[in-house]
Design brief:
With about 250 residues, the chain is of the alpha/beta class. The protein has one domain: Aldolase class I (TIM Barrel, Alpha-Beta Barrel). It is about 40% helix and about 15% strand. The chain contains eleven helices and eight strands. Helix 1 packs parallel to helix 2 and helix 7 packs across helix 8. The chain is globular and about 45 Å long. The two termini are about 15 Å apart. Bound molecules: 2-phosphoglycolic acid. 2-phosphoglycolic acid (PGA) binds next to strand 8.
Length: about 250
């Protein structure tokens, strides 16, 4: 039985003081929920303070990005070792905004994934097609390629400690959610791709989230689907609505 996992991706929102006051409200409302894994991903500036505020809490903390080199002359970048040093639990990689605006490639995603596993930080690997790819019916092959590349050279023993987030680009921040059936169809497909790369038992152990305009109204229907193990939430994770979304996963 896979445990559901709800992650809030705050993107480039919330100053340090806003992050702390918001997390205090979340903490009060979510402290008794142990049936669902919960995490928030603040900006780098707030990571350490949010982590301290949540020490001994059931709410975990993730980063929104990492660089794959260990250290050195990479101005502006943050290493996995730095994240581990402040006990960061998760790290989003391959988000479509990073692929689109910062030219992150499948090759980068694979190298970041390897580095996060080395530091025992759970990678949250985002994949998903854009609208023209869906309309031209190439969405399955696009997502398959992203998965195959991301998992290149990853040993089967690590697969269960990876989270995949299926995020159709046309649904991110648009208010247009994939239907629960569309989301389930792709999450099931992703599981089959993992099964063909490894085996069914391993594929059954990996958690696959859906992301893209998840809110308190649509979360329950999406999270009821058999191959959807959670949600990666953007806009709605900045509001107290996030509490309702977590509760929908119970
Ligand atoms: P959204 O973002 O919920 O605002 O659509 C999801 C994401 O980008 O992870």
């Amino acid at each position: 039985m896979r445990k559901k996992i709800i992650i809030g991706n705050w993107k480039m929102n919330n100053t340090l003081s806003e992050s702390i006051s918001f997390i205090q409200a979340l903490k009060k409302n979510l402290e008794n929920i142990l049936q669902v894994d919960i995490a928030v991903c603040p900006s780098y500036i707030s990571l350490n303070s949010v982590k301290e505020e949540l020490s001994s809490s059931n709410i975990k903390v993730g980063a929104q990005n990492v660089y794959f080199e260990d250290k050195g002359a990479y101005t502006g970048e943050i290493s996995a070792e730095m994240l581990k040093d402040i006990d960061i639990d998760y790290c989003i990689i391959g988000h479509s905004e990073r692929r689109q605006y910062f030219k992150e490639t499948d090759y980068d995603v694979n190298k970041k994934l390897i580095k996060l596993l080395e530091y025992e930080i759970t990678p949250v690997v985002c994949v998903g097609e854009n609208i023209s790819q869906r309309e031209s019916n190439t969405h399955f092959s696009i997502v398959k390629e992203q998965i195959v590349q991301a998992l290149n050279n990853i040993n089967s023993k690590h697969i269960s400690s990876i989270v995949i987030a299926y995020e159709p680009i046309w649904a991110i921040g648009t208010g247009i959610t994939a239907t629960a059936e569309q989301a389930e169809e792709m999450c099931n497909y992703i599981r089959n791709v993992v099964s063909s790369l490894y085996n069914k038992e391993i594929a059954d152990s990996i958690r696959i989230q859906y992301g893209g305009s998840v809110n308190s109204n649509n979360a329950r229907e999406i999270l009821m689907m058999p191959n959807i193990d959670g949600a990666l939430v953007g806009g709605a994770s900045l509001k107290e609505e996030f509490i309702d979304i977590v509760n929908s996963a119970i």
